[in-house]
Amino acid sequence: MCSSVFTAFILTSFSAMAQPSVLPIRSADFVVAVVNSEPITNQEVQALSLRLQRDARAQGQVPNISESKKLALEQLINDKVQIQQAASLGVVVDEAAINQAEASVASNNQLTVDALRARLQQDGLSLTTFREQLRQQLLLSRVREREVDNRIRISDLEINQFLSDQISRQAAKLSSDVNLAMILIGVPENSSPDQVKALEDRARSVASRARNGEDFASLATSFSTSPDRGANGGAMGLRPLDRYPELFVQATASLPVGGVSQVVRSGAGFHILKVLQRQSPPATLLVTQTRARHILLRPSAQLSQAQALAQLGSVRRDILSGKADFADVATRISQDGSAPQGGDLGWANPGMFVPEFEQAMNQLRPGQLAEPLVSRFGVHLIEVTDRRDAPMTDAEQRNLARRVLREEKLEDAYTSWVQDIRGKAFIEMREPPQ
């Protein structure tokens, strides 16, 4: 497990750590392995094995109990050598960091810290044990970030290649937009061959005049039988290619802007087409931006978290029923700096908000109002007002490339580092886990 994933684990849920064992554990514990004189016990393997089995079931898999014990023992050995490495490097985790992690776990589970502690007690996990688990998780995360990050190197050449590949993939998904103008020489039903031939000759004459430089809009007004010929000179508007008939796309595919097509026959008659404008996909990556607004209430001695949740729940019902206006309520009661703007947070790129807020926001459609949400800042009522794809700046693109490439290399770098420090450790296998 790489450090970024690992950090996310300790800050999202305590359920895997807090649930009591459901399989019997031998009353007389015993040592199954020793790592540099520090023991790993059968009960430790059992507890982690149960967690791995629960994770497998949550993913719809049938857990292999024997395999889960082997995996649990391997993970405990790897964790042990990493914790020992952290100690040798002087990496420490203070109480303030543990308090912050505990608060984050509580917030991500929509609980206060006191409610989290009560839940842990109900599940049979002592606060001391839980905080020690948090301490070890943070310690592992910090030593991994310190040691593994130094092994990752990302060159400008790799960044350039990544961006080139991504822009090419994006361009393949986004068709060019084209504005075509059309003159239609309609062919009435039941026209005789001589009448069709005369109409075709007229179309060829008009096309020749257009290619020789006569104003296309004027020709459309004079000759086109299309109903909207006079309003816009035959222009059909800038639109994706897939919104034009395939016949039109093929006839104009090789034409430059300003080019006029040969006469094209369809069921409606004879068409002359002119390319007015081509708009290619942007030669830069696009980022999905979200515009949202929120109302924030901060719990205090006068307003508990439960009361804040209830108050914003009531506000949500009033907004949905039309009894209240979101912007008016935000201006009056929100305790965020966005209150004067009716709670409007402006256009935001991914990663601008804390994870718990952004996760809830990303699940909303424009115009949708979320249930009240608890974050590390308080209780929010969120509404998404709009969403768009916007071009990224050069600096944003390169930062994105660096992050993605780093994540791709992180797992290999982490595995290599663990192998290195494990190879230097003295590991003695004792009795197999039961």
Word description of this protein:
- With 434 residues, the protein is an alpha+beta fold.
- The protein has three domains: 3-153 and 410-429, Porin chaperone SurA, peptide-binding domain (Triger factor/SurA peptide-binding fold, Orthogonal Bundle); 175-279, Chitinase A, domain 3 (Roll); 286-391, Chitinase A, domain 3 (Roll), CATH 3.10.50.40.
- The protein is built from 16 helices and eleven strands.
- The model is unreliable at 1-27 (pLDDT under 50).
- 51% of the residues lie in helices and 17% in strands.
Q: Order the strands across the largest sheet as they lie in space.
A: 4-3-6-5
Q: Report the CATH superfamily of the largest domain.
A: Porin chaperone SurA, peptide-binding domain
Outline the low-pLDDT stretches. 1-27
Number of strands: 11
> Tell me, what is the CATH class of the largest domain?
Mainly Alpha
Q: Would you tell me which CATH topology of the largest domain applies?
A: Triger factor/SurA peptide-binding fold
User: What is the CA-based Rg, rounded?
Assistant: 33 Å
Please give the domain count. Answer: 3
Number of helices: 16
- What is the beta-strand fraction? 15-25%
Cα distance spanning the termini? 25 Å
Approximate helicity band: 40-55%
Class of secondary structure makeup: alpha+beta
Please describe the topology of this protein.
Elements: H1 3-12, H2 15-18, E1 31-35, E2 38-41, H3 42-58, H4 65-89, H5 95-108, H6 113-122, H7 127-149, H8 156-173, E3 177-186, H9 193-211, H10 216-223, H11 229-232, E4 235-240, H12 246-252, E5 264-265, E6 269-279, E7 286-297, H13 305-321, H14 326-333, E8 344-348, H15 355-362, E9 373-375, E10 378-391, H16 394-423, E11 427-429
Antiparallel strand pairs: 1-2, 1-11, 3-4, 3-6, 5-6, 7-8, 7-10, 9-10
Helix pairs in contact: 1-7, 3-4, 4-7, 5-7, 7-16, 8-16
